[in-house]
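Good morning,

Attaching, inline, the backbone tokens for the sequence recovery test we're adding to the shared suite. The designed sequence is right after.
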């Protein structure tokens, strides 16, 4: 799978504590090795659609990926298949606010 990283995601990862940075790096390696079908079924990543939430710039549907027990990556999918890492939220509940 192809991966695009938006500046907001990259900045949040770089500002995070070391365990989150390591978990994000591990997640990226895993994403590179998965197909889209494997991503949907992967139990550790907990990839899920965020109902009613779209990426404001592109209008794409947003999804959530588990980075750590509390940190979530907000993503969208584009043709290719490409997963776009939009933002990183260190607190699980804040990731799902509009």
């Amino acid at each position: 799978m192809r991966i695009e990283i938006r500046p907001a995601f990259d900045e949040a990862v770089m500002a995070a504590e070391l365990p989150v940075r390591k978990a994000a790096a591990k997640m990226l390696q895993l994403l590179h090795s998965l197909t889209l079908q494997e991503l949907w079924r992967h139990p550790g990543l907990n990839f899920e659609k965020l109902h009613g939430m779209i990426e404001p710039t592109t209008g794409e549907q947003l999804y959530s990926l588990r980075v750590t027990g509390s940190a979530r990556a907000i993503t969208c999918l584009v043709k290719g298949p490409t997963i776009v890492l939009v933002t990183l939220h260190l607190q699980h509940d804040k990731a799902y606010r509009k």
